[in-house]
From TrEMBL:
InterPro entries: AAA+_ATPase (IPR003593), ABC_transporter-like_ATP-bd (IPR003439), P-loop_NTPase (IPR027417). Belongs to the ABC transporter superfamily. GO terms for molecular function: ATP binding. Keywords: ATP-binding, Nucleotide-binding, Transport. This is ABC transporter ATP-binding protein. Residues 2-232 form the ABC transporter domain. It comes from the Bacteria. It comes from Streptantibioticus parmotrematis. Gene3D superfamilies: P-loop containing nucleotide triphosphate hydrolases.
Length: 309
């Protein structure tokens, strides 16, 4: 779907993208990076809206430097910031965007009705956008990205400004864009956790460079640890220390954080190994739960095991 090779974008004072080389396959891909990591800059280059300083990129096999208009005909784009006209209705706006993409008037109206229904904006579609909630505005932005039936959509921070329920609904919608319509999705976020739930594949960028690209499954395992707490017994007055030794003997990588033991989850067997080691020691198991590393910890590779939320 997307290939970049040594892609670099320098602004006068910052290098927003620094020799980024990556490959994005069909499906739902999450692009994670802290604020300022270069996500929006990448999307603008991929759409042919901003030139790269160096390097090359292709979207759907089309060169971003020369084929911008053709790319934008086949790709939908949901921008990060609020950019909707307040005084028209969702229907008027999305029909307009469909017409801009080349759909005939009747097709534009039909596709608009279908798309707005898909994003859950059917009842309110004739009301002026200015009166919409943030969640409704995000849905209009998603609808206009989908209305011309693109092969790929680029969604820039679609959950921005949403409350937890709105966030979950938006993530569910994004998943269905691929499941129901077969449209591939590149979705950005600064929250790793939400993309883990939505994406087949995760790409992490930091300071404009590729930090990591892997399937979500591999990523979750590599970025999660198991928090284990055990009781003390007469035989083991310091149960935590005894368990730390036992886990090490069982080949597990573990770090103590007060009374918590943070075990790196290598694979599914880790859970059984922990359980068996605890049973063998004869101490009580108070808790055993999966903790996700915060994105900052993924960046600098120093896991501490705190949950990101
Ligand atoms: N037009 C511009 N001129 C100068 N610097 C820019 C411009 N656009 C972005 N930058 C800088 O480039 C870097 C990357 O910005 P970018 O918007 O791509 O990051 P991002 O990952 O999308 O972050 P955010 O989620 O905060 O938008 C930042 O340091 C930003 O200040």
């Amino acid at each position: 779907m997307i290939v970049t090779e040594g892609l670099t974008k320098r602004y006068p004072r910052v290098t927003a993208l620094d020799r980024l080389t990556m490959r994005i396959e069909p499906g739902v891909t999450g692009l994670v990076g802290a604020n300022g990591a270069g996500k929006s800059t990448l999307i603008k280059i991929l759409l042919g809206l901003a030139p790269a300083t160096e390097g090359a990129a292709a979207v759907l096999g089309l060169d971003v430097a020369t084929e911008g208009p053709r790319i934008r005909a086949d790709v939908g784009y949901m921008p990060e910031h609020d950019c909707l006209p307040p005084d028209v209705s969702a229907t008027e706006f999305v029909v307009h965007m469909a017409r801009m993409s080349g759909l005939a008037p009747t097709a534009a109206r039909e596709r608009t009705a279908d798309t707005l229904r898909h994003v859950g904006l059917y009842e309110e579609r004739y009301r002026a956008i200015g009166g919409y909630s943030t969640g409704m505005k995000q849905r209009v932005k998603l609808a206009q990205a989908l209305v011309h039936d693109p092969r790929l959509v680029l969604l820039d921070e679609p959950t921005n400004g949403l409350d937890p329920v709105g966030r979950d609904e938006m993530l569910g919608l994004i998943r269905r864009v691929h499941a129901d319509f077969g449209i591939s999705v590149l979705v950005t976020s600064h929250l790793l956790g939400e993309l883990e739930r939505t994406s087949d594949h995760i790409v992490v960028i930091d300071g404009g460079s590729l930090l990591r690209s892997s399937s979500t499954r591999d990523f979750t395992q590599a970025t999660a640890s198991l928090a284990v707490e055990v009781t003390d017994t007469d035989r083991h007055p310091d149960g935590t220390r005894a368990a730390l030794t036992a886990f090490a003997e069982a080949g597990l990588t573990t770090r103590a954080d007060g009374r918590l033991l943070l075990v790196d989850i290598r694979d599914e067997d880790t859970y059984d190994t922990v359980r068996d080691a605890v049973a063998e020691l004869g101490v009580g198991l108070v808790r055993m739960e999966q903790r996700r590393h915060r994105i900052a910890e993924v960046f600098d590779n120093r896991p501490t095991g705190h949950d990101e939320k």
